[in-house]
Amino acid sequence: MAPVLALVLALALAGCAAKTPEPTVFRAAGDPIWSAAAFQPAQVAGTWRQVADFRTAGSCDAGGVEITPTSEGLQLRGTLCLAGKAEAVSGVAPLVGPGRLRVKGEDWWVIWVDVGYRTLAIGTPSGRFGFILDRGAIPVDRLGAAREIFDFNGYRTEALTAL
Is residue 71 part of a domain? Predict the structure, then answer.
């Protein structure tokens, strides 16, 4: 009887153990996602403001990044709010395909850029985060276009928040 009671108590205590929270994702990883095949890296040189992102509770403030094209990829320097956490972004992000960068070991895809290279929508195949960068204050029409592109790529756009 004592071994049975010990087993029941052990199972009860195991049920009380803190569970590791599942990471928030903003798109189903199996859904198709497309990068901007016509993306021209030389056109993104300059200072970019984070104007929207996919928010979680307790998210950080908007960030910004300085982008400099190099022969190895795009040199990034700044801080961005990614998946609710402020993350320093620095170093060269190699281009690994059309409109595709590798930043800190993770694939970042440019899923849309407007014709004047004023607005970038960047997502991840994993759906861990997505955000919009702009060279200034983003007008409503470009914010709407970026939102539609995120929707097309399987993102839950109700979580996209203008900053």
Answer: yes
